[in-house]
Write a structure and sequence with these properties.
about 450 residues; Rossmann fold; OB fold (Dihydrolipoamide Acetyltransferase, E2P); six-stranded parallel β-sheet; five-stranded mixed beta barrel; globular; binds S-adenosyl-L-homocysteine; binds iron/sulfur cluster; binds FE3-S4 cluster; 4Fe-4S; iron
Length: about 450
């Protein structure tokens, strides 16, 4: 079966694609790079905002035409597949295989079935699954916890991914050992809420303890995403500070700087709590690089509320931010109960926030000029003559290609900075990749 997989959405979806791909490989699937070459097209879908949903809808439309022409098989998996909205699309466009994010381990069975195969259950096998290490990669993801127990009023994720289920620590450590043996130099621990790790399973370590255990494996760089401010305890901060493998980068979504909006969002913390967590982080680790997620134009957000977000931005001084316009999602409480703001208001606020973020990114990036950072070089950059990578603070870094001829870790002195990246020169190679990698 010639298979082509298309992935939308977050890093969790990328990890799930890897998992499904390895299942498919074990039953003899071959992978191809385009739809015309494929007998089976599998879409890993996202439903967090309207845009990714519309992308899937138009892709399914295209695939239906191919299906009519040449009997192509179409599969849909991931978050949208779990929702009524996605299932309606699947019926309309004649999707053959539909797997929710909890049923991915059923992919083999789905392909053996001679008729339409739909599975939307949350299967325990998934948390016990150990996918093989990807080959020829310097960075990899490892899922540590699936699902989400929060109830943010705008968010569809708890519906699509179900309640929190932590993976057994032994399994996580075995997966990390495999990745280390495969030459991986950087691992990102994944979950909708990594710092709730262990809360659902008596006897499991908590997230801080897990970080310390993961550090012991000896992979040089450990990152994690995403954290919820409510569970960002002092113990987590101490574990980060005391585990040198853990990168100096934290993504801590705040969503809004206004207490009124935070309450309507159901975020379970106030602005003051969030700022106290940031203070504790900066106190323990002064060089910490910080990023966040912000939703602008949440229903009922006034100009004053929005200004509170801008002022929080100035207090925290984020290095970068993912900024989203509120997108009403059917099935969420805010969709049902609140009136969406006019689009112009939302767009105008987004533009102001982007401006503010650029100013801070520029100032913060300038502070790195003259310092030496460790860069994980992946390969050639789009800009000719440069290699690209990122440092332990997750800043993108460009280096003259001749100075970093093979992927791996390099010591780099930062010479220049823009709001979006750092430019540097190699002052020493630390660890070249031990796996055969070709510069792209
Ligand atoms: N569990 C993570 C990430 C969830 S989805 C967390 O809580 O941080 C990633 C981001 O998408 C969220 O942080 C939020 O900023 C954004 N998002 C979620 N639902 C949204 C919606 N309905 N409209 C706009 N942005 C949304
Ligand atoms: Fe969604 Fe909130 Fe859960 Fe994040 S914490 S996945 S934003 S419900
Ligand atoms: Fe999208 Fe699901 Fe991730 S909705 S953002 S793919 S958790």
């Amino acid at each position: 079966m010639k298979t082509h997989i298309i992935t939308y959405g977050c890093q969790m979806n990328e990890y799930d694609t890897h998992l499904v791909r390895s299942e498919l490989a074990s039953i003899g699937a071959q992978f191809v790079d385009s739809i015309p070459e494929a007998d089976f097209v599998l879409i890993n879908t996202c439903a967090v905002r309207g845009k990714p949903v519309e992308k899937v809808r138009s892709l399914l439309g295209e695939l239906r035409k191919e299906k009519e022409k040449r009997g192509l098989m179409v599969g849909m998996m991931g978050c949208l597949a779990q929702l009524e909205e996605g299932q309606q699309m699947a019926r309309k466009f004649g999707v053959d295989v539909l797997l929710g994010p909890g049923a991915l381990t059923e992919i083999g069975k789905a392909l053996e079935a001679k008729s339409r195969f739909w599975d939307l259950s949350f299967r325990e096998e998934l948390t016990h699954h150990l996918p093989p290490a990807p080959q020829g990669q310097l960075s990899a993801f490892v899922s540590i916890i699936r699902g989400c127990n929060h109830h943010c009023t705008y968010c569809i994720v708890p519906t699509t991914r179900g309640p929190e289920v932590s993976r057994h620590p032994d399994l996580i450590l075995r997966e990390l050992e495999q990745l280390k043996a495969a030459g991986v130099l950087e691992v990102t621990l994944l979950g909708q809420n990594v710092n709730s790790y262990g809360n659902d399973q008596p006897g499991f370590p908590k997230f801080g303890q897990l970080l310390r255990m993961v550090g012991q494996v000896g992979i040089p760089r450990i990152k994690f995403t995403t954290s919820h401010p409510v569970n960002f305890t002092d113990e987590v901060i101490a574990a980060i500070a005391e585990t040198p493998q853990v990168c100096r980068y934290i993504h801590l979504p705040v969503q809004s700087g206004s207490n009124r909006v935070l309450r309507r969002m159901g975020r379970e913390y106030r602005r003051e709590w969030y700022l106290d967590r940031i203070r504790a982080i900066k106190e323990a680790i002064p060089d910490m690089v910080l990023s966040t997620d912000i939703i602008v134009g949440f229903p009922g957000e006034s100009e004053e509320d929005f200004e509170q977000t801008l002022s929080l931005y100035d207090e925290v001084q984020y290095d970068s931010a993912y900024m989203f316009i509120y997108s009403p999602r059917p099935g969420t409480p805010s969709y049902k109960h609140f009136q969406d703001l006019p689009r112009e208001v939302k767009v105008e606020r987004l533009q102001r926030l982007i401006e503010r973020q650029k100013e801070w990114s520029y100032k913060k990036n300038q502070q790195w000029v003259g310092r030496t950072v460790e860069v994980l070089v992946r390969g050639s950059a789009k800009d000719e003559g440069y290699a690209e990578g990122h440092d332990r603070g997750n800043h993108p870094v460009l280096i003259p290609a001749a100075q970093a001829p093979v992927p791996g870790l390099y010591q780099v002195e930062v010479k220049q900075a823009t709001p979006h990246m750092l430019f540097g020169e190699v002052v020493g190679a630390q660890e070249a990749a031990t796996i055969p990698l070709v510069m792209a």
